[in-house]
Design brief:
alpha/beta; 7-stranded mixed sheet; 196 residues; Rossmann fold
């Protein structure tokens, strides 16, 4: 498959990204560069200086709403990219309205409770939609410990154990590996499905 063939096929798909911090912002950029047709991005946070060590934002965007800043950054790569933004906190009541039209959903939250909520909601209400989660990416090194785990329509990228803490912060290297693994898993699912 050529790059042109890949982009031609990906342009028909919609991917939802829940959370646009370290995982979500980098995953969105990778998908935009790959030619995904539409991204639906949702988050309620603003860009802070502490985000710049691992998230796809810039110093002059500090204080901006993340979904709008990310849309701007993606459109610098591809001005014709179709991006739907939701500046809100995702919960059990609104997630289906936001992501029901998606072919795949990427879970990119920071908090374990939010990850659990979204995964359970998607698997319950949209069992036919694959969900790709990121779990275990804090710290540095140990690149070979980062793997893809799969059970039916749930895909988990990460090492599954490296939790974020003050002594084990999220850094660009490992966060980027997991974010790009999430994007690569999206592409693998969509392109393998398309070319069966």
């Amino acid at each position: 498959m050529t790059v042109e063939e890949i982009k031609e096929n990906l342009r028909f798909y919609t991917v939802g990204i829940a959370g646009v911090g370290g995982l979500g912002s980098n995953c969105a950029i990778a998908l935009a560069r790959s030619g995904i047709g539409k991204l639906i991005i949702a988050d309620y946070d603003v860009v802070s200086e502490s985000n710049l060590n691992r998230q796809y934002y810039f110093f002059d965007q500090i204080g901006q709403i993340k979904v709008f800043a990310l849309k701007e950054n993606i459109q610098r790569i591809n001005p014709e990219m179709n991006i739907e933004t939701h500046n809100l906190k995702i919960d059990e009541l609104n997630f289906s309205h936001i992501f029901s039209a998606c072919d795949i959903i990427v879970e990119a939250f920071d908090k374990a409770s939010e990850k659990k909520m979204l995964i359970e909601c998607v698997l319950s209400e949209f069992p036919e939609i694959p969900i790709i989660s990121g779990v275990g990416m804090a710290g540095f090194g140990k690149s070979n410990s980062i793997k893809l785990y799969n059970s039916d329509n749930l895909y988990i990228c990460g090492d599954g154990i490296s939790e974020v803490s003050e002594d084990n912060p999220p850094l660009a290297g490992r966060v980027g590996i997991v974010a790009n693994m999430q994007a690569n898993t999206v592409l693998e699912i969509l392109l393998n499905n398309h070319f069966k």
